[in-house]
Design brief:
heterodimer, B: mainly alpha, about 70% helix, about 0% strand
């Protein structure tokens, strides 16, 4: 556990030092400000649009951090050979990977919750304090979705090059919003192809589970059951992705 | 030392040359662009809206951000409406754009109401407007606003009192329906004077909307209805007393814009000041 925490701390510090976090947070702040500036021309829809676009910015910031930082996490250390320094200490490969994921997720969560706090302050100003709860819920679910993508990014980063890792992670991010449609499509396909598609729709991450944006924009939150199921699903998916990453990474020969 | 300063002088000279080239190129770009733009045929304002794909397609391509896309399109649609209202009063793409917005966000009340009523009135596409409002009702069956607006457009645009009565009554049955839904159902059911009820309907819009264009439209219609009556002065005071709204290009003055005497009168409650206007037309029973 100490080894995992040490690796996570190192990853977090590195991400903060990398300036990516600053750039991404700067982008998020600009989007938040823009959404507020657009409000006056929205003909009465300004407050709702501010919250809606703000939540989108939160999601984009999270995915940007996961893709920009996460997809090169392990690969960069292998290439620089700094990984040998870490693994020569009492740190196993599995602890190393889980630590990398934890550090990346912490970085993403700090950014998402930091911006979430800004959005909650703006939301309270334009819509009243009742919007804070739904915004916190939405930010939490965004962080859960991005934690899954972070685990997948670590998996790809430990197996492949950064460019391919970006492609795979973004591909899964995109298909993560199509899994429900895939299931419907699978029902219309006959035989094996339908079956394969159906299985795929369960294997791919279902990111719609974590999407509360359309509810929150109208001031509504999710039920406790929805949140609990979302957390459970995210936890299980992260565990599965990291387990696969460990299996692959344990076999990998590090030059 | 001398070699260093010579290199420095050369670097400075190169920088100055580069800056000069940049300035000349910038001026050339500005001149050419202005000349080219003058020769290009005038584009239809926001004509690109015609090329927007269907809402169903966009929903798939939005990757969970469908409502954010709906918001951005709403801003574009508002711009489209404003541009065409000032230029040619033609709204060819409006039905298409509002259809996309409401597919991306089926709960977007402002888009249904503004799009539906605008299509029925200045858009001169009554069927498309009704379709949009009916879509709103389908997706939000417990909301009173959609049947109410349907009653509104059938009453005001088509003078179809039977359909309007049905719609107002439908609105009145919804859980959070305000009391005036029942009132309008009764008035249109009793075939009360058309102008008086229309006046009340438009007044309701002017007083309750958050949309500056909707309010402008309501005031224009009210002004037409009240023209030539002895209530014109009171009407203008009432208009000035309405709280200002954000956005758009309002054709009406902001609150408190008139002379001091008017402002003093404008402080009285709106409902009181305007009461009796429809009755003057001898309609509301």
């Amino acid at each position: 556990m100490n080894a995992i925490l040490a690796v996570a701390r190192g990853t977090f510090r590195e991400a903060v030092r990398d300036r990516v976090l600053v750039l991404v947070l700067g982008f998020g702040a600009v989007v938040l400000a823009m959404s507020r500036l657009l409000a006056p021309i929205a003909l009465g829809e300004g407050p709702r649009i501010t919250v809606d676009l703000g939540l989108s910015a939160l999601g984009l910031v999270g995915i940007a951090i996961v893709v920009l930082v996460g997809t090169q996490l392990v690969h960069k250390e292998i290439e620089r050979r700094t990984i040998h320094v870490v693994l020569s200490r009492p740190v196993s490969r599995s602890e190393y990977l889980v630590g990398k994921w934890a550090g990346l997720t912490a970085t993403m969560a700090v950014a998402v919750f930091g911006m979430g706090a800004m959005l909650a302050a703006i939301g309270t100003w334009v819509l009243g304090p009742s919007i804070v709860g739904p915004i916190v819920q939405a930010a939490f679910m965004i962080a859960c979705a991005n934690a899954i993508l972070a685990a997948l990014a670590v998996l790809f980063s430990s197996l492949s090059t950064p460019v391919l890792s970006v492609a795979y992670t973004l591909g899964l991010y995109a298909t993560g919003y199509w899994t429900n449609d895939l299931r419907i499509f699978a029902r219309q396909l006959p035989g094996l192809s339908g079956e394969v598609l159906n299985v795929m729709s369960y294997v791919l991450p279902n990111l719609d589970v974590f999407n509360l944006r359309s509810q929150v924009a109208y001031g509504e939150g999710a039920s406790v059951l929805h949140l609990a199921l979302g957390i459970g699903y995210a936890g299980a998916y992260v565990a599965a992705a990291l387990a696969l990453a460990v299996v692959a990474f344990e076999r990998r020969e590090l030059k | 030392m001398s070699r260093g300063s010579a290199a420095e002088r050369a670097a400075n000279a190169a920088r100055r040359k580069a800056l000069l080239v940049f300035l000349v190129a910038a001026v050339a770009i500005a001149v050419q662009l202005t000349a080219v733009q003058r020769r290009l045929p005038a584009r239809e304002p926001l004509g690109e809206l015609a090329y927007y794909p269907s809402g169903t397609w966009l929903q798939q391509a939005a990757f969970g951000e469908a409502t954010a896309w709906a918001d951005l399109l709403w801003l574009r649609a508002v711009q489209y409406y404003g541009e065409h209202r000032m230029v040619d009063n033609e709204f060819k793409q409006m039905a298409h754009v509002f259809e996309i917005i409401t597919t991306l966000d089926p709960r977007f009340q402002g888009a249904y109401v503004f799009g539906g009523t605008s299509l029925c009135q200045e858009g001169k596409q009554f069927e498309a407007g009704v379709r949009l409002l009916e879509k709103g009702m389908r997706h939000n069956p417990r909301e009173w606003i959609y049947p109410f607006e349907l009653g509104f457009v059938h009453y005001v645009n088509k003078r179809d009192l039977t359909r309007a009565t049905f719609d107002f009554a439908q609105a009145a049955r919804q859980p959070e329906a305000p009391e005036f839904c029942q009132r309008f159902a009764a008035w249109s059911g009793q075939k009360a004077g058309y102008e008086a009820v229309a006046f009340e309907l438009w007044r309701q819009v002017a007083e309750t909307t958050d949309n500056v264009y909707m309010r402008d439209k309501a005031i224009q219609y009210l002004r037409k209805l009240i023209k030539g009556t002895d209530q014109e002065r009171n009407f203008e005071i009432w208009v000035r007393s309405l709280p200002p709204l954000d956005g758009g290009v309002s054709e009406e003055g902001e609150a408190g814009d008139g002379d001091p005497a008017d402002e003093e009168e404008a402080e009285t409650p709106r409902g009181q000041r305007m009461s009796g206007l429809p009755a003057r037309r001898g309609a509301t029973s």
